[in-house]
C-alpha cells in the first residue's frame, strides 16, 4: 500500500459525473483497511442532501462514513452539506453558504488524527468541477498533499475523458497514484480492448477493475483492488 502513497490517504476524482466515484471510494476504503489499520472517508462538499432529524445528510457522504473505521462524526466527513442537487457553486449560493478552504482543512486534520493520516477525500463531479467560487479541487488536493486516484467510468467515450482528466491532474501539479476502472454498465464486446487502451494511455497504474454488479457490497469487492 505504501508503494502508491495510500499510507497518507488519497484524493479521488472521476472522469465525469456518474463515473461511480463514491462506490469506488467505498471499495477503496475497505481495501485500505485490509491490513487492520484505520482509514476514513471524507466528502468535503456534497450537494443534493436530504433533511433528517440530525440535519442535512448526503447519500454519498453517508456511504463513506459507513465504510470508515473508526466511524467519524458526519460533520467531519461532510463539512458542507448543500440541499440542492446541482453544481456545488449553485447549491451553495442557493443555501446562502460560502465554502471556505480553512473549514475543509480543519475537518481533514481532525479526521487524519483519528485515522493515523489515512483519509480518502472524494471530490465532486469531474476534476475541473469547482468546489466553490475560486476554489478548485486541485487547490484542495495540493493543500492536503494527497495523490490523486482517478475513477474511470467504463463506457463509450471513457478513453477521451480519462486521458483528458489525467493530463489535467498532472498539469495542476498533482500526482496521479493510479486509476480504477468501474463498470458502470454491462460490458460490451470491446470491454477488454478498452481496458488495454486505458492501461497503455494513462500515466498511473491500474489499481483494479470493479465489475458491473448493482447492489454489491463494497467490502466484498475490496479484493478486486491491488494497492501495491
Q: How many strands?
A: 10
Q: pLDDT below 50 for ≥5 consecutive residues: which ranges?
A: 1-5
**Helical residue percent band:** 25-40%
Note the total helix count: 9
Oligomer: single chain
Shape: globular
- Structurally, the number of domains stands at 1
Mean pLDDT, all residues: 95
Q: Any idea of the CATH class? A: Alpha Beta
Order of strands in the sheet with the most strands?
2-7-1-8-9-10
Main pleated-sheet profile: 6 strands, parallel
CATH architecture tag: 3-Layer(aba) Sandwich
Provide a descriptive summary of the structure in words.
This protein is an alpha/beta fold and 228 residues long. The protein has a single domain, classed as 3-Layer(aba) Sandwich (Rossmann fold). It is 36% helix and 20% strand. It is built from nine helices and ten strands. The strands form three sheets. Strands 2-7-1-8-9-10 form a six-stranded parallel beta sheet, sandwiched between helices. β4 and β5 form a beta hairpin. The longest helix has 14 residues. It is globular and about 45 Å long. It is found in: Cytoplasm. Homodimer. Keywords: ATP-binding, Biotin biosynthesis, Cytoplasm, Ligase, Magnesium, Metal-binding, Nucleotide-binding. Its EC number is 6.3.3.3. Belongs to the dethiobiotin synthetase family.
